[in-house]
Design brief:
- Helix content is 19%, strand content 36%.
- By secondary structure, it is α+β, with helices and mostly antiparallel strands.
- The protein has two domains: 1-32, no CATH class; 38-254, no CATH class.
- Helix 1 crosses helix 2.
- The chain is extended.
- The two termini are 44 Å apart.
Amino acid sequence: MARKDGNFLRGVLGGLVFRVVNGKQRVSTRPGRIKQSRATRISNQTFGKASSLGGQIRKILYINVENNFDPTAGSRLTAALRKILGKCRNPETKRFDFQADSFSAVRGFDFNIHSRMENQMAVIPTVTATDGTLQVSVNEIAVSKAFNFPSESFKCELKVSLSLYRLKEGLAYAKTESQGLEMTKYMELLAAHTFTFEVPDGCLCIVSMSLRFFNAGTTGWIPLYDKKINPSCICGALVTPGTYQQDKRKRWVDMVRFE
C-alpha cells in the first residue's frame, strides 16, 4: 500500500509503484509474475542440473588438473553439459535416459582455453570400458613430433584421473584415482601404454588428463607453474551399463539427482 511522505507517495497503489528518486516522484508499472511455459521450466531445471554437475566435476578434479581452470571454465562446462542433458531428457516425462556415449561431446574439453591440450600434445588418448574395466590407451608416440615442450622444459609428466558419478542416485565418488607416466624432451619414442581402472556399473566416468612440465635444477626437477604451458582436459566420458552394486570401500558424497 502506498503512503504519503510529504509531497510524495511511496509504495504500491493498484498496478503502480511510487518511488522518490533524487527529490522527484517516480512512478512505474508494478512488475507482474511471469508465467513460464512447461518447456521453459524444464529448460531452466536442466540448466540448474548442468551447473550443479559441472561444479561437482570441477570440485573433484581441482587438484588433479593442477588447479588449472580459467575464469570461463565453469560457464563453458555448464553449457556443454546443458546441451547433453537436454538431449537425454524426455520433454514430457522430464526423466533422463543415459546411454553409454551420452557424454561423449565433452571429450577434448579444455579446462583452460589459454592452455589447450592440442597445443602441447598432438593426439588425445582413447578411453574404453568393458566388463568393469576402463582403459585409457596411449599409442606409441614420437615424442619430438607429438609433444611441444616449452623451451625451458626438459621433462613432462602425463597424468590421467578418473572420477565417478552415480547420476540417478545423486552421488559422486569423493576422490579420484590417478595414474601417470613420464617422458623427457630428447626421448625418441614413448612406448605404447594403457592405464587400467576398475569401474562399477551404472556410473558416469569422467577421465581427465593433464601435462606438467619440469626444468632441471641443481637439486632435482623443478616444476614450471605457468598455467599457459600446463594443459588439462577431459579425454573421455562414458556411462557404464547396469545398476550400481554397493561397495563399502568407496565413500560417496551427495550431489544433484538425475532421475
